[in-house]
Every structure is written in C-alpha cells, then in structure tokens.
Design goal:
nine-stranded antiparallel β-sheet; single chain; about 180 residues; mainly beta; 1 helix
Amino acid sequence: MNKHLSLLAVAAVALLSAWPAMAQRQRLSPHETISAVIDGNRVTITYGRPYTTKPGTTEARKIWGGLVPYGKPWRLGADEATTLITQKAIEMGGQAIPAGAYTLYMLPEENGASQLAISKRLGGWGIPVDTSHDLARVDLKKEALDKPVDQFTVAVAKNPSGGGVLKLMWENTEFSVPFTVKK
C-alpha cells in the first residue's frame, strides 16, 4: 500500500511540476529584456516585440487605432505581460513607485493624454482585465516619429534634464514619460 502511495505522490509532483509548461501559450513575437542604470538605479523591462506586419504574412497592419484600439487597455507589447523592475524607488509622472517588480500596460487615446498603467499584479497573458491592482497611472507625452519603427520598441535612457525617460515607439508614434530616482 505504501509503495502505491509513493508512486501516486511522485506522479502528482511530476504532473504539478509540468503544469506551468503545459499551461504556457505559444509566443507569436520575439521578446527582449532591456536594462539601464539611471542615477545609480537599475531599471529593467522585459516585453514582447511585435512587428507592424501580420505574423506569417507580409500584410502591413495599422497599429494605433487599429491593432491597438484607442480607449482600451493594451498589454504594451505581445504575449506575456510586460514587466518593469526598479531596484530603487522612482517617481514617474508625479507618482511614487516603490522599488520592486510591476506589470506595465497602456491606455492609448487618439486625442488627449494616453496613460501608462503600473500594476502590482505580476504575470498574466494578454490584456489586463482587473485594474484594482493598479499602483498608478501616468500621462504619456505623444510625438510623431521622423522615421517609422517596424518593431515595437521600449527604451530607457538618461534624461538630459536629469533622471531618466521611458520611451515606447512603434509605427509612426513615440510615447514617453520622464522619471526620477528617489533619494
């Protein structure tokens, strides 16, 4: 009897260990992790990088107001949720963001301010549906790009006026928000 219970326990552990792999969905886009040190603070972002062309075709897609609809939450990339890790507390758009890991998503608007949402809920797939975990939402500056960007790109750079700036670039548009490292 004990031998059967042991085999059952081993099988249960093996099944539970394999569960995350079985539940994982297939990625449709390449993924990237970027990192920058701004004023002694490492900021890291991991995200999916979709293209303007439809996967498996040469068909160009309209991004803003098309694939990414205005007025609705967007996952800020592709596949798994985009994550932000900051080793020190930062202030972004007038909002305090403690050191830690967060999920980022966006609320794009055609007219008016688009917003970056910073959620305390980690992980997930696709568009966030539960906004009760949002730590903050900050307004993004919207600018036209001189040259189109075919693949969604996130950048963290030093801001010439101090601190850093988070940039989101795709198609013909750049969204950005400055941040400072809390002392």
